[in-house]
Write a structure and sequence with these properties.
Blueprint (H helix, E strand, L loop, with lengths): L1 E4 L5 E3 L16 E6 L6 E5 L18 E4 L2 E4 L12 H4 L6 H5 L19
Length: 120
């Protein structure tokens, strides 16, 4: 989840338990803007520290998202084929990603064009 102080560009991410901490000169009370995929954006005024904040799920706004390299695209915007790698396949010890994909995902062909380490 991303937590931002209103009217400034400073923001922080929460840890796995949802905890976060700001290092700022602002004093209580202040306004936080909370955003998280699949939940409604929330704007709250915090008067005490620590504060307990609950988010409301938003199934209407959530569209299926596919991670593509270093960015994301909506599944409906993709052209071509999309395949999922089974989780148990990812847990097997292999020397490289291409070895994991070879024979593990239907319709994928992996060819080696170079014998050099790190080559294609």
């Amino acid at each position: 989840m991303t937590i931002q102080l209103e009217a400034v560009t400073h923001s922080v991410k929460t840890d796995q338990k949802g905890k976060f901490q700001f290092v700022t000169g602002q004093k209580l009370p202040f306004t936080l803007i909370l955003t998280f995929v699949g939940y409604q954006k929330k704007r709250i005024i915090v008067n005490t520290s620590p504060a307990i904040i609950e988010l409301v799920p938003s199934s209407e706004d959530l569209e299926e998202v596919v991670v593509v390299g270093y960015g994301t695209q909506k599944r409906r915007d993709l052209t071509g084929a999309v395949a999922s790698v089974p989780e148990n396949l990812l847990r097997q010890p292999v020397s490289s990603l291409d070895q994991t994909l070879k024979g593990g995902v239907s319709g994928v062909q992996v060819t080696q064009t170079s014998g050099q380490p790190g080559g294609e």
